[in-house]
Amino acid sequence: MRRPAVLALPLVLAAALLSGCGADVANPPPAPSGPASPSAVAVSASADRQFGELERRFGARLGVYAIDTGTGRTVTHRADERFAHASTFKALLAAVLLRRLSDEDLRRVVTYTEADLLEHAPITSQHVATGMPVEDLIAAAVRYSDNTAANLLLNEIGGPKGLQGELRKIEDRTTNINRNEPTLNEAVPGDDRDTSTPRALGTDLRTFALGDVLPKARRLKLTDLLIGNTTGGPYIRAGVPSDWKVGDKTGSGGYGTRNDIAVVWPPTGSPLIIAIQSDRGVPDASSADPLIAEATKVVVATVR
Fold this sequence. Notes:
304 residues, 10 strands, single chain
């Protein structure tokens, strides 16, 4: 996680966004059934226009993947374009550790020194003298986006390469995990290191939080961590109705990168998976934080 400085964006970025990818909204049919209905096409065109308007309004590139897990209806926009994943990877790291480690391993205390502390270490900075159990480091990484906790946890799994290997085991061939905090947040355009796509992140989150990859108790632990996230208030949480429950993980980085991935539980019906990524293409650009909530509102209006 980083705090980008504010910089005015050049007009060329907004112009480049005019040719952005369209949104796709569909209810997957059980078998091929011919062209989409006029109403489905109209809904897709409406979402497309709204996402394009948001990109122009905020001077940002926007990626969206969302699915209603009950109906299968999806909303996508630049869903297969690469963006820096930034701290959203911490949700995947937590899930992999919950999958791999025994209860005894989770209780094991990891020690570290002042020299290991990074700029954003709100929890680990309080426990240098005693160290922290692995399960507490997981909570610090997910709920507070503690960068030192994330690096200590990466050490538990063989570093970035080890985490990427675990993601390949769940058929994620897209997400790249190459560096530790804080350099993974550089987000230089055209650099595929430490990048993913909205579709890949959303699919991974669904696999871990709602699938059967994790035992039920561990799956509930993961969703509890996501629900307890303290950094997500202005993002996906701000774009859904107040009576919907959200478990999410945010991320921010260079070039105005701002992301949020979430499991969303409406009062009725099945949960939604929403993955939204964005960037602004300028090294010291501020992130377009309200964009995430605005894009979420389009998703909710489209799938429900």
